[in-house]
Amino acid sequence: MLLFLSRIGRYTLSHLAAMGRMFLFLLSALALSFRPPAKIRLILYHIKTIGVDSLSVVVLSGFFTGMVMGFQGYYSLRKFNAESWLGSATALGLLRELGPVLSAFMVTGRTGSAMAAELGTMRATEQIDALYSMAINPIKYLVSPRIIASLIAMPLLTAIFDVVGIYGAYLVGVGLLGVSSGSYFSGMESSVVFHDVYSGLIKSVSFGLIITWVCCYKGFHAPPMATGVSQATTESVVLSFVFILVWDYFLTAIML
Amino acid sequence: MIRVVDLYKSFGNQQVLKGVNMEFVTGKITTIVGTSGCGKTVLLKHLNALLLPDRGHVLVDSVDITQLRQKELYEMRGRFGVLFQGAALLDSMTIFDNVAFPLREKTKTSETQIRHKVEERLEQVGLEGMGYKYPAELSGGMKKRAGLARALVMDPEIVLFDEPTTGLDPVLATSIHQLIVRTQQTFGFTGVVVSHTIPQVFEISDYVAILANGIIEELKPTKEFQSSPNPVVQQFIRGETEGPIQVL
What we know:
The structure holds two protein chains of two kinds. By secondary structure, chain A is mostly helical. Chain A has helices at residues 2-33, 40-50, 55-78, 86-124, 127-133, 138-176, 181-191, 194-220, 226-255. Helices cover 86% and strands 0% of the residues of chain A. The longest helix of chain A is centred in the middle third of the chain and has 39 residues, at 86-124. Chain B contains eight helices and ten strands. Chain B has helices at residues 40-47, 70-77, 95-106, 111-124, 140-152, 170-187, 222-226, 231-238, and strands at 2-11, 14-24, 29-33, 55-60, 63-64, 80-83, 158-162, 190-194, 207-212, 215-221. Chain B is globular and about 55 Å long. At the A-B interface, helix 5 of A face helix 2, strand 6 and helix 3 of B.
């Protein structure tokens, strides 16, 4: 019995310690992000890798998500003779929830995994040790620019996802299912308020931080071997998804 | 002068260093030899605090670097240059940018001066005109040369070499050894080399130490080391499996 309890204790302590390390990593990266000199060129480069390079996958997934919402929304609203509210339902769903969450998932899969793999490889090939030995703080050089870039790129990607998704639902609802174009947009205009747009963008900024934090942490602390890098990549994606969904629940509860 | 005092380090249940004591003479090359996995690289990484000990001290000019705060530690690391086992070049940059990297990040040197200094270092290691290449386009020997150019670009007082000839053919290994000697004579740095390639490494070393069973079993000037009656030294030099060195 004592052995069993001590095992549970050890397991709990090691996980609490790991969470503490992860949190300290975030604090350190955030503090260094706002300490001069700003790495402008690196930030621009990472805005490209997080933002521009994820654009195609975000546009594609936004378009199809919107089209599916067009079908599903029409099917549900027709039961209440409320098809004219399709624009409103789609816009609210995308702006408040699906836009930020799904674009965050896309960025995690497209860029977050690459961050973990890149930093994990740098750990395995001693490039991170080389930065330390050159008296350069690797968190300032490798992590902080990615954090700032993700804070800038994520809301922009989410906004694009929202717009493309609304257009996808419009094509299905108005083009295929015969909803009036005027009621699609007027319903949207009358029910969507600035708070809906703003809450979605707040979510996307915080998801950007979560993705960069988790993926960089996992890559930075990957065991220095090939399996360590692959393990870090997998863990970073799974953990980011979980953190995004859990944090989404709390943000929704606060900002509803 | 670097002095290691009673250094202990373990990873999990594995005790790697069990009370290492040694000194590195300023302006000379000291080589640490020992079997693979005996903890040579672990010891080397303690010298510029890339690893911190469980117990013990590393004194650089009487300053215990294990007790320094982060800012002081970064300043102290600026006195070191390191050539890593795989060169550890940043693979997203060209060789020129790799060598220029510490100058751009840590100094306010103008781009003209940086270009001049980087080209000079690349020439000193035999890589003139190769600056535009990426690390992935270089052979193992060329990567080591580029790594050495980067290690020397800040004119360090102390240079650490982690297995500088591992994975190289004998001809390339000799050329890297000659390069270490030549650059040491040019710059006058204190060199610490970790290696197990004997007897070649004896030719570049002023002092040789052997790390075995977690401690420094012998540290002597090279000639005396080679003729030492210490059974650990003799077992290592002869490459015998039977003897006081525990083979993992």
